[in-house]
Design a protein that fits this description.
By secondary structure, the protein is an alpha+beta fold. Helices cover 53% and strands 19% of the residues.
């Protein structure tokens, strides 16, 4: 039977760390950062945190490096969870929105091609 504990811990990590992560990023280049997802390993030892970065002068990869450098600080904020072992935090750039935007662009291009092909065959 699957355990729901990793999901509950992931939700709590997201709740606890969303604001502190946003605060750190606002001090380093401004912009907006969103903690989009947290995945916790079944043994609760590793937590992967996915973030989206908008309008930051440092860029997404630099922000991820900065967050990973400060992972110990964020880990200390998880003490109220009262876990036997606080998970090791690893930050990743969430590229879901970039992928969605790229797909939309491709669909628009395809639609434009079909419309131009349709209008040229109508004129024949």
């Amino acid at each position: 039977m699957a355990s729901f504990r990793p999901d509950r811990v992931a939700r709590e990590i997201q709740r606890i760390l969303s604001q502190p992560i946003s605060d750190v990023v606002s001090l380093h280049g401004g912009g907006m950062i969103t903690l989009t997802d947290v995945k916790v390993s079944p043994d609760l030892t590793i937590a992967k945190l996915y973030v989206s970065v908008f309008g930051n002068s440092l860029g997404g990869e630099r922000i991820i490096t900065l967050l990973n450098e400060q992972a110990q600080h964020f880990r200390a904020l998880l003490a109220p969870l009262h876990l036997k072992v606080i998970p090791t935090l690893r930050f990743y750039l969430d590229s879901t929105l970039d992928a969605m935007e790229r797909i939309e662009q491709l669909l628009k291009q395809q639609g434009t091609r079909q419309n131009s092909e349709g209008s040229s065959s109508d004129s024949e």
